[in-house]
Amino acid sequence: MSKKRLHTPEGVRDIYGLEYLQKLSVQEKLHKKITEYGYQDIQTPTLEFFDVFSKQVGTVSSKELYKLFDKEGNTLVLRPDFTPSIARCAAKYFMEESIPIRLSYLGNTYLNTSELQGKLKEVTEIGAELIGDDTAQADAEMIALAIESLLSAGLVNFQVSLGEIDFFKGLCEEAGLSCETELALKDFISNKNHFGAQELLEEEKIKEEYILAILKVTDMFGSVEALSEAKSYVKNDRSLHAIERLLTVYEILSFYGVEQYVSFDLGMLSKYNYYTGVIFKVYTYGIGDAIVKGGRYDSLLTQFGKEAPSIGFMIIVDDLLSALSRQGILPKPQMANALLLYEQANLAQAVSLAHDYRKSGKQMTIIQKSNGKNIQDYLIFAKKQNISFVSEYISSDKIEIYHIELDQSYQITQNQLLEGIV
Amino acid sequence: MTMMDDKQYLTFALGKGRLAKDTMALFEKIGITCEEMKDKDSRKLIFVNEELKLKFFLSKGPDVPTYVEYGAADIGVVGKDTILEEDRRVYEVLDLGYGKCRMCVCGPAKSKELLEHHEMIRVATKYPHIAKDYFYNKKHQTVDIIKLNGSVELGPLVGLADVIVDIVETGSTLRENGLEVLEEICPLSARMIVNQVSMKMESDRIKKIIHDLKQYL
How many Å apart are CA A311 and CA A129, to the nearest integer? Predict the structure, then answer.
C-alpha cells in the first residue's frame, strides 16, 4: 500500500473543530462592528492581474507574490493585500460617485515569504476602506472603528500607534535628501536604528541641524506633548501640516471616547509605498508584529483612473486569535450541539424527533448506535466534537440524557426534550 | 491604559559566551544586575531578578533575533552579523561598541583576480544570506554558495571553494593558513535589538534602559 501525503505545504494549514469555531465567532464579531458603521461587504477575486500589485502601486515586493499564468500567458497573482483590489473595484464601479463610499472585505491573502521563520503564508484579513473622503473625520472614523472592532472581539490590552507619512517626507525635503537616501533612511528609521540613520546622514554630508532634527523627531513617540515638542524642530509646511492633522484626528477620537488607546509615533513608516498621510498600527501582547495596519492612500486610486483620496485598515484575524489565545482571553464558543443515538428499529422516530428539535433553530446530530460501541465511547466522541449533551432514544416517554458539561445523566420524555428542558 | 497593574517581566535574550559577559558588565554600570547568573555551577536556563522584574536567558547567537521577533524576549543582545543573516522584524536600537570585527571576503592572494570580473565563483560561508546579498546586489557577480558550519577557512585549502565569506577579528587564523582579506563587506559589533511590540507596550522602561546605556557608550 502506498503512503498518501497528508500534510499541507509549508506556511498553510487546516483549521477545524474548536479552533475554527473560535475563528468564525471572532470574525463574526469584527464583521458585525464594521457593518454597524455602514460598511458594505464586497468580495473580490483571489486571483488578480499582476499589474494590480505592480511596483508603481507600491504594495509588497514582487518576489513575495505567488505568480501563475493563465492560458493566454498573462501573469496572475494570488492577492497579497486587499487594498489595491478594492481600489481597482472602486475605480471600476463607482467612477462617477462623488459621495464617499464605505466598503468592507473578509478573505485570505497570500504572501510567499521566507521559509522556516514560523510565519503563515496564507492569513485571513478583515478590513474596511473609506473611499473618496480626505477629511480628518474619515481618519478618526477608521481608527475608532479599528479600536471598537478589537474591543468587540474581546481584546483589552492594546496600543494604537499613530503616525503621518508626510511628516517624514517634509523633513526629507527640507533637508534636501535624494530619493535614494530617503529610501535608505526610511529603512533605518522604521527599524528604530538611529545610529545607522546618523551614519548615513553624516556620509551624505547633510547639514548638522537637519541630522539632529531628523534623529530627534523620528525618535519621538508618546502622547500629545511629544507632538508639540516635535513641532519646534521643523520649519517646513508639509511636516507642520502633518502635525496639525494628527492633533485634529486626536481631538475627534476623543468624541468617540477612544483617545486613550492612541499614542503617536512620528518615526512609524510603512513598507507599502501607497500610503500618503495618516498611518496607524495596533500592537498587543503575544504577537511580535502589528495585528492591525491601516492608513491613508490618497493617490492609489488615481493609478486606476479615479481621483479619490481614501483611507482604510485591515485586521489580521489569525494574529488576533493568537493574541487572544496567548493572553488567555479567547472567548469560549457556546456549545449548543446535541447528539441523538438510536437503535436501528427506532430510525423513523429518531428522524422525526430530530426534525422537530431542529425547527427551533437548534442543532442536533443523529447517529445510529453501532454494535460494539458503548455509551462511554460516544461520550468521549461528543467531548471532542464540542457537543453539549448526548441523548439516547429508548421510547417516546424515555430519553436518556448524558449532559457533558454538568457531567450528569437523567431521563426525560420526548416532549420535554423538544421544550428545551435539557 | 495598556500597562497592567502588576508589572510584567522584561526578558533579555543574550548570545552565549563573551558577548553575554561583556553585556552583563555593561548592564551592571546602569544598575541592571543578576546575581543568579554569576553562579557558575547553576544549571538554570532562566535567571531572574525579582526586585527589578527582569529575566535573562542565554541562547545561541542566531536564535536571539528569533526569540525577540516572537516576543519570547523583549530585548536581545547579539552580533550585527547575526542580525544581517537572520533578517528578522526587530528594532535595532543600539550599537554597543564591543565585539568589534569585520565581515570579509577572504581567500588565497591569487583569488583576488576572481573578484575583479563577473565570473562565476564558489563561495564557502556560514552566512549564505550576507554572502548572497553582497555578491548579487553590490558586486553583481554570480556565485555558487556552499554553506559550511565551521572552520570555513578549510574551504579554499581543500579546493571546495575559491573564496570564503566570514568574520575576521585579528586575521591570525587566516595568515597561519595562507589566506588573506580580499574585500571588506561591513564592520560588525554587538547590537541591542528590541521586539516591536515591547517597544510600544513597555516603552517607558525600555527607553530608560536605552537612555542609560547611551551614557556609557
Answer: 6
